[in-house]
Amino acid sequence: MIKILLVLAISAMLICTIAFSSYGNEAIMMKSLINKPNNWYQTQLSLELGFLDVLSHKIQFGSNGSVFDYVKEGSQDVLFPFSRISADIKLNKRHNFTFLIQPLDIGTKAIVERDIIIDNQTFPKMMPLNLRYGFAFYRLSYLYDFWKADEKELGIGLSFQLRNATIEFSSSDGNYLQAIEMSVLCQYSSFA
Q1: Which secondary-structure segment (H or E) carries 157?
Q2: What share of the chain is helix, strand, coil (3-state, %, to 5)?
Q3: Which of 86, 126, 134, 155 is the most exposed place for a label (fewest CB within 10 A)?
Q4: Distance between CA 131 and CA 76 in Å, rounded?
Q5: Partner residues linked to 137 by β-bridges
C-alpha cells in the first residue's frame, strides 16, 4: 500500500505534459504561428513524460511453461521512464484526427533462482538473464463533432490500435535466446 501511494505521489509530481497549442484557449491561439482563431484547421502536439511502476506482471508461454513473475524474479521492481506523444488536427471544427504513439520497452537483468521454461526453452537455475518486454502502442482516431460550437460537445468516432509486443529472454553469454513477437490490430467505435 505504501509503495502504491509513493508511486502515485511521485507520478503526480513528475508527469509533465507539454501542449504546444490548444483548441479552446484563445490567448494561446492568438500567439501561435499555426493556430489562428479563424483557421479552418487547428493542431495540437502533446508530449507526456513520467515514470512507470510495474505492480504485477506475470507471464507463461505454453501449458508446461513456467509462470515467470517479472516483478519478483525479473527485476521489474523499480521505476521505468515513460513517454507518450500525440498529434491532433481539427478540420472545420467538426473532423478530429488523433495519432498517438506510446513506446514501452523495458529491459532488465536478473539471475534466476530456479529453472525457468519459456516456450519449451529451459533456462537453468543461477543463469544471468537479459530480459526485454516491449509493448509499443499506436492509435489513429477519428471523431466527428455534431456541433461546431466549442461549448457543446456531441460526437461519434472510430479508432484503430496497433499493439506490438516483443518479449525476449536471453542468457548473458548469448547461448540461450527465446523471443516472442506479436502484433494485434484492434478497432473501436465510440459515441461521446
Answers
A1: strand 155-171
A2: 10, 55, 35
A3: 126
A4: 10
A5: 102, 163
What would the grid cell of residue 49 be?
A: 513524460
**Nearest CA to 133 among 175, 70, 79?**
70
Q: For the chain, 192 residues long, give each residue's pLDDT as a single digit of tens.
A: 454 444 444 444 444 333 333 444 544 544 677 788 788 899 999 999 999 999 999 999 888 899 999 999 999 999 999 899 999 999 998 999 999 999 999 999 999 999 999 888 899 999 999 999 998 999 999 999 988 777 777 889 999 999 888 999 999 888 888 887 877 777 666 665
Q: What is the rounded CA–CA span in Å between residue 124 and residue 149?
A: 64
Question: For 1-16, b where at least 16 C-beta lie within 10 A, e where not — what string?
Answer: eeeeeebeeeeeeeee
